[in-house]
Amino acid sequence: MTRHFLRDDDLTPAEQAEVLDLAARAKADRFGLRPLEGPRTVAVLFDKSSTRTRISFATGIAELGGHALIMDAGTSQLGRGETIADTARVLERQVSAIVWRTGGQERIEEMAEGTTVPVVNALTDAFHPCQILADLQTVREAKGALAGVTLAYLGDGANNMAHSYLLGCATAGMHVRIGGPAAQPPDAGVVARATEIAAATGGSVTVTDDPARAAGGADVLATDTWVSMGEEGKGTALYEPYAVDEKLLALADPEAIVLHCLPAYRGKEIAASVLDGPRSRVWDEAENRLHAQKALLAWLLERSP
Q1: 249-262, pLDDT tens digit by residue?
Q2: Which is the catalytic residue, given 4, 7, 54, 128?
Protein backbone atom coordinates (compact mmCIF):
# COMPACT_ATOMS: atom_id res chain seq x y z
CA MET A 1 0.00 0.00 0.00
CA THR A 2 1.31 3.43 -0.90
CA ARG A 3 2.29 5.50 2.13
CA HIS A 4 1.48 9.19 2.18
CA PHE A 5 2.34 11.92 4.70
CA LEU A 6 -0.64 14.24 4.78
CA ARG A 7 -0.77 15.01 8.50
CA ASP A 8 1.47 14.34 11.47
CA ASP A 9 -0.42 11.31 12.76
CA ASP A 10 0.09 9.46 9.48
CA LEU A 11 3.23 8.17 11.23
CA THR A 12 2.97 5.94 14.29
CA PRO A 13 5.31 6.75 17.19
CA ALA A 14 7.69 4.01 16.06
CA GLU A 15 7.59 5.20 12.44
CA GLN A 16 8.18 8.81 13.46
CA ALA A 17 11.25 7.67 15.41
CA GLU A 18 12.48 5.75 12.35
CA VAL A 19 12.19 8.86 10.18
CA LEU A 20 13.98 11.01 12.77
CA ASP A 21 16.76 8.42 13.09
CA LEU A 22 17.10 8.48 9.31
CA ALA A 23 17.15 12.30 9.38
CA ALA A 24 20.06 12.20 11.80
CA ARG A 25 21.88 9.83 9.43
CA ALA A 26 21.12 12.14 6.49
CA LYS A 27 22.60 15.07 8.39
CA ALA A 28 25.73 13.14 9.39
CA ASP A 29 26.26 11.78 5.87
CA ARG A 30 24.61 14.30 3.60
CA PHE A 31 24.95 12.34 0.35
CA GLY A 32 24.62 8.84 1.80
CA LEU A 33 20.94 8.29 0.96
CA ARG A 34 20.31 7.69 -2.77
CA PRO A 35 16.76 6.32 -3.20
CA LEU A 36 16.11 8.60 -6.18
CA GLU A 37 19.24 7.57 -8.08
CA GLY A 38 18.46 7.42 -11.77
CA PRO A 39 17.53 10.21 -11.55
CA ARG A 40 13.91 9.61 -10.56
CA THR A 41 11.69 12.70 -10.57
CA VAL A 42 9.62 14.19 -7.74
CA ALA A 43 6.91 16.72 -8.62
CA VAL A 44 6.97 19.67 -6.19
CA LEU A 45 3.85 21.80 -6.59
CA PHE A 46 3.33 25.24 -5.07
CA ASP A 47 -0.04 26.95 -4.79
CA LYS A 48 1.49 29.28 -2.18
CA SER A 49 4.76 31.15 -2.01
CA SER A 50 7.72 29.55 -0.29
CA THR A 51 11.38 29.99 0.52
CA ARG A 52 12.49 27.23 2.91
CA THR A 53 10.16 24.57 1.52
CA ARG A 54 11.19 25.22 -2.07
CA ILE A 55 14.91 25.28 -1.29
CA SER A 56 14.91 22.30 1.03
CA PHE A 57 12.88 20.02 -1.22
CA ALA A 58 14.78 20.98 -4.38
CA THR A 59 18.13 20.54 -2.67
CA GLY A 60 17.08 17.40 -0.83
CA ILE A 61 15.72 15.64 -3.91
CA ALA A 62 18.97 16.39 -5.76
CA GLU A 63 21.00 15.04 -2.86
CA LEU A 64 18.89 11.86 -2.89
CA GLY A 65 20.01 11.36 -6.50
CA GLY A 66 16.78 12.62 -8.05
CA HIS A 67 15.34 15.51 -10.00
CA ALA A 68 12.84 18.04 -8.61
CA LEU A 69 10.16 19.14 -11.09
CA ILE A 70 8.97 22.38 -9.49
CA MET A 71 5.68 23.83 -10.69
CA ASP A 72 3.62 26.82 -9.55
CA ALA A 73 -0.15 26.95 -9.76
CA GLY A 74 0.07 29.81 -12.20
CA THR A 75 2.16 27.85 -14.66
CA SER A 76 0.35 24.50 -14.59
CA GLN A 77 -3.03 23.29 -15.83
CA LEU A 78 -3.98 22.64 -12.19
CA GLY A 79 -4.11 26.39 -11.76
CA ARG A 80 -6.42 26.66 -14.78
CA GLY A 81 -9.02 24.29 -13.47
CA GLU A 82 -7.78 20.80 -14.34
CA THR A 83 -9.14 18.47 -11.69
CA ILE A 84 -6.92 17.19 -8.91
CA ALA A 85 -7.86 13.61 -9.83
CA ASP A 86 -6.75 14.07 -13.44
CA THR A 87 -3.50 15.72 -12.35
CA ALA A 88 -2.83 12.87 -9.93
CA ARG A 89 -3.33 10.25 -12.65
CA VAL A 90 -0.98 12.04 -15.03
CA LEU A 91 1.74 12.57 -12.45
CA GLU A 92 1.78 8.98 -11.19
CA ARG A 93 2.73 7.76 -14.68
CA GLN A 94 5.90 9.86 -14.67
CA VAL A 95 7.11 10.81 -11.19
CA SER A 96 8.10 8.84 -8.09
CA ALA A 97 6.46 11.12 -5.51
CA ILE A 98 4.37 14.29 -5.27
CA VAL A 99 5.04 17.14 -2.83
CA TRP A 100 2.32 19.79 -2.63
CA ARG A 101 1.99 23.10 -0.80
CA THR A 102 -1.63 24.11 -1.08
CA GLY A 103 -4.67 25.43 0.82
CA GLY A 104 -7.45 23.13 1.94
CA GLN A 105 -6.47 19.83 3.50
CA GLU A 106 -9.13 18.13 1.39
CA ARG A 107 -7.15 19.04 -1.75
CA ILE A 108 -4.07 17.06 -0.78
CA GLU A 109 -6.23 14.21 0.49
CA GLU A 110 -7.91 14.07 -2.93
CA MET A 111 -4.49 14.01 -4.60
CA ALA A 112 -3.42 11.09 -2.42
CA GLU A 113 -6.64 9.18 -3.13
CA GLY A 114 -6.06 9.55 -6.87
CA THR A 115 -2.47 8.41 -7.21
CA THR A 116 -0.26 5.39 -6.59
CA VAL A 117 2.87 7.35 -5.65
CA PRO A 118 3.56 8.86 -2.21
CA VAL A 119 2.10 12.32 -1.59
CA VAL A 120 3.72 14.68 0.93
CA ASN A 121 1.99 17.63 2.58
CA ALA A 122 4.39 20.55 2.24
CA LEU A 123 1.83 22.80 4.02
CA THR A 124 -1.92 23.15 4.00
CA ASP A 125 -4.16 25.49 5.93
CA ALA A 126 -4.70 22.71 8.47
CA PHE A 127 -1.25 21.14 8.95
CA HIS A 128 2.48 21.72 8.37
CA PRO A 129 3.84 18.25 9.19
CA CYS A 130 7.22 18.50 7.42
CA GLN A 131 8.06 21.55 9.54
CA ILE A 132 7.27 19.63 12.71
CA LEU A 133 9.57 16.76 11.70
CA ALA A 134 12.38 19.32 11.37
CA ASP A 135 11.42 20.85 14.71
CA LEU A 136 11.46 17.45 16.41
CA GLN A 137 14.88 16.74 14.94
CA THR A 138 16.08 20.08 16.32
CA VAL A 139 14.63 19.43 19.79
CA ARG A 140 16.15 15.96 19.89
CA GLU A 141 19.55 17.37 18.98
CA ALA A 142 19.30 19.94 21.76
CA LYS A 143 17.69 17.81 24.46
CA GLY A 144 18.95 14.35 23.57
CA ALA A 145 15.44 12.86 23.51
CA LEU A 146 11.84 13.80 22.85
CA ALA A 147 9.77 11.77 25.30
CA GLY A 148 8.96 13.83 28.37
CA VAL A 149 10.13 17.14 26.87
CA THR A 150 7.66 20.04 27.24
CA LEU A 151 7.09 22.25 24.19
CA ALA A 152 4.99 25.39 24.47
CA TYR A 153 3.65 27.00 21.31
CA LEU A 154 2.61 30.65 21.71
CA GLY A 155 0.42 32.48 19.22
CA ASP A 156 -2.48 31.58 16.98
CA GLY A 157 -3.84 28.31 18.33
CA ALA A 158 -6.07 27.82 15.32
CA ASN A 159 -3.37 27.68 12.68
CA ASN A 160 -1.56 24.82 10.95
CA MET A 161 1.54 25.00 13.13
CA ALA A 162 -0.46 24.64 16.33
CA HIS A 163 -2.32 21.65 14.88
CA SER A 164 0.87 19.95 13.75
CA TYR A 165 2.62 20.59 17.08
CA LEU A 166 -0.34 18.96 18.83
CA LEU A 167 -0.19 15.78 16.75
CA GLY A 168 3.55 15.58 16.15
CA CYS A 169 4.63 16.24 19.73
CA ALA A 170 1.99 13.90 21.15
CA THR A 171 3.25 11.18 18.81
CA ALA A 172 6.76 11.75 20.16
CA GLY A 173 5.57 11.37 23.76
CA MET A 174 6.10 15.04 24.54
CA HIS A 175 4.06 17.39 26.68
CA VAL A 176 2.61 19.96 24.28
CA ARG A 177 1.04 23.22 25.41
CA ILE A 178 -0.82 25.60 23.12
CA GLY A 179 -0.96 29.13 24.53
CA GLY A 180 -3.16 31.44 22.50
CA PRO A 181 -6.27 33.62 22.58
CA ALA A 182 -9.46 31.89 23.67
CA ALA A 183 -11.09 33.27 20.53
CA GLN A 184 -8.62 31.33 18.35
CA PRO A 185 -8.57 27.79 19.78
CA PRO A 186 -7.15 24.76 17.98
CA ASP A 187 -9.56 22.52 16.10
CA ALA A 188 -11.41 20.42 18.66
CA GLY A 189 -10.98 17.27 16.59
CA VAL A 190 -7.21 17.76 16.44
CA VAL A 191 -7.03 18.35 20.20
CA ALA A 192 -9.04 15.18 20.80
CA ARG A 193 -6.82 13.15 18.48
CA ALA A 194 -3.63 14.53 20.08
CA THR A 195 -4.98 13.76 23.55
CA GLU A 196 -5.72 10.20 22.45
CA ILE A 197 -2.19 9.77 21.08
CA ALA A 198 -0.59 11.35 24.16
CA ALA A 199 -2.45 8.93 26.42
CA ALA A 200 -0.70 6.09 24.60
CA THR A 201 2.78 7.65 24.37
CA GLY A 202 3.07 9.14 27.86
CA GLY A 203 2.75 12.72 26.67
CA SER A 204 0.09 15.30 27.49
CA VAL A 205 -1.89 18.09 25.87
CA THR A 206 -2.72 21.48 27.35
CA VAL A 207 -4.62 24.32 25.69
CA THR A 208 -4.69 27.61 27.56
CA ASP A 209 -5.18 31.32 26.99
CA ASP A 210 -2.65 32.08 29.75
CA PRO A 211 0.80 32.65 28.18
CA ALA A 212 2.55 32.27 31.55
CA ARG A 213 0.90 28.90 32.15
CA ALA A 214 1.97 27.74 28.71
CA ALA A 215 5.58 28.90 29.02
CA GLY A 216 6.19 28.13 32.69
CA GLY A 217 9.03 25.62 33.03
CA ALA A 218 8.83 24.61 29.35
CA ASP A 219 11.88 23.09 27.68
CA VAL A 220 11.03 24.59 24.29
CA LEU A 221 9.21 27.79 23.34
CA ALA A 222 7.93 27.93 19.77
CA THR A 223 6.04 30.56 17.86
CA ASP A 224 5.01 31.48 14.33
CA THR A 225 4.08 34.58 12.41
CA TRP A 226 0.74 36.01 13.53
CA VAL A 227 -0.39 36.50 9.94
CA SER A 228 -0.25 33.35 7.84
CA MET A 229 -0.42 33.27 4.04
CA GLY A 230 -3.91 34.19 2.89
CA GLU A 231 -4.70 36.05 6.14
CA GLU A 232 -3.15 39.37 5.16
CA GLY A 233 -5.08 42.27 6.67
CA LYS A 234 -6.21 40.50 9.81
CA GLY A 235 -5.63 42.22 13.15
CA THR A 236 -2.87 41.08 15.48
CA ALA A 237 -3.65 42.86 18.76
CA LEU A 238 -5.22 39.65 20.04
CA TYR A 239 -1.84 37.92 19.94
CA GLU A 240 0.33 40.55 21.62
CA PRO A 241 0.23 38.90 25.10
CA TYR A 242 1.74 35.77 23.50
CA ALA A 243 4.83 37.41 22.00
CA VAL A 244 7.96 35.43 22.83
CA ASP A 245 10.12 38.04 24.50
CA GLU A 246 12.71 38.04 27.29
CA LYS A 247 10.00 38.29 29.93
CA LEU A 248 8.17 35.19 28.68
CA LEU A 249 11.40 33.30 28.09
CA ALA A 250 12.37 33.93 31.73
CA LEU A 251 9.39 31.81 32.78
CA ALA A 252 10.63 28.79 30.85
CA ASP A 253 13.25 26.30 31.98
CA PRO A 254 16.69 27.96 32.31
CA GLU A 255 17.96 25.64 29.54
CA ALA A 256 14.96 26.20 27.28
CA ILE A 257 15.50 26.64 23.57
CA VAL A 258 13.44 28.74 21.14
CA LEU A 259 12.01 27.75 17.76
CA HIS A 260 10.39 29.76 14.97
CA CYS A 261 9.53 28.21 11.59
CA LEU A 262 10.19 31.53 9.77
CA PRO A 263 9.60 33.99 8.25
CA ALA A 264 10.00 35.91 11.52
CA TYR A 265 8.85 39.43 12.29
CA ARG A 266 11.08 40.80 15.01
CA GLY A 267 9.20 42.94 17.51
CA LYS A 268 5.93 41.19 16.68
CA GLU A 269 5.56 37.49 17.57
CA ILE A 270 9.19 37.29 18.75
CA ALA A 271 11.69 39.78 20.14
CA ALA A 272 14.88 40.31 18.16
CA SER A 273 16.91 39.60 21.30
CA VAL A 274 15.28 36.17 21.57
CA LEU A 275 15.36 35.22 17.89
CA ASP A 276 19.01 36.21 17.60
CA GLY A 277 19.93 35.23 21.16
CA PRO A 278 21.94 32.30 22.54
CA ARG A 279 18.93 30.08 23.16
CA SER A 280 17.59 30.35 19.63
CA ARG A 281 17.81 27.17 17.53
CA VAL A 282 15.96 28.73 14.62
CA TRP A 283 18.75 28.33 12.08
CA ASP A 284 19.32 24.69 13.00
CA GLU A 285 15.56 24.27 12.63
CA ALA A 286 15.64 25.82 9.15
CA GLU A 287 18.53 23.57 8.08
CA ASN A 288 16.79 20.50 9.44
CA ARG A 289 13.96 20.94 6.95
CA LEU A 290 16.46 19.56 4.42
CA HIS A 291 17.47 16.51 6.44
CA ALA A 292 14.03 15.64 7.81
CA GLN A 293 12.38 15.84 4.39
CA LYS A 294 15.10 13.76 2.74
CA ALA A 295 14.55 11.13 5.41
CA LEU A 296 10.80 11.28 4.96
CA LEU A 297 10.99 10.85 1.19
CA ALA A 298 13.44 7.95 1.51
CA TRP A 299 11.23 6.29 4.13
CA LEU A 300 8.01 6.69 2.10
CA LEU A 301 9.62 5.40 -1.10
CA GLU A 302 11.01 2.36 0.66
CA ARG A 303 7.57 1.42 2.02
CA SER A 304 5.54 2.10 -1.12
CA PRO A 305 5.22 -0.26 -4.13
Answers
A1: 999 999 999 999 99
A2: 128
